[in-house]
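Protocol step 4 of 6: structure prediction from sequence.
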Amino acid sequence: MIKVLIADDHTMFVDGIESILKLEEGVNVVGRCYDGASVLTFVQKQPTDIVLLDVNLPDMSGIEVCKQLAATKPSVKVLAISMYNEESYVSEILNHGARGYILKNTGREELLKAIKTVQGGATYFSKDVTETIMKGLMNRRKSSSKTSADIPKISRREKEVLKLIAEEFTTQEIADKLFISLKTVESHRANLLAKLNARNSAGLVRISLENNLLS
């Protein structure tokens, strides 16, 4: 059972999300919060797998909430949800530990897919958000003076794992596809995090795209 906390300051929006999730077998809405402080308090007291987190909350930004969750409750995964699709919002919250970013016009099926994907250990972005990330990375690549010598070298197997992470496969699915154990996948992932100086899967995807490591 995936335990989801909904964090948004718009009651009607929270009602709508909760009504969708209540109909889904295997997903349990464990609570709702309307400000960042409540989120930080809730996850310390109640078992929570995923926080469906609005980027803008009345007392603090979703980015700050995400940052504090990463520091105090790293086991809780953050799936950001917002009406904003600006690259600055997306990159900032991903840099602070969010596992995915979807837009508020997301449909029921995509919402459920995003939650299950993130819970499975992969990252998830709405199509429009992916395009925004790519545009931002391309613009930075054009203005970067980074040489090939600066790009970390990864093994063939690490590259295979990295590609599957970028394609939103879970750890179990990666193990099945490559005919290796879960422990081996986690070992490759740990090596990639260290080599690319990333904090999570979202960071791996961002850095690999920025350095053209998936081609």
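Step 5 (inspection) to follow. Residues 2-127 form a domain with the Rossmann fold fold (CATH 3.40.50.2300).
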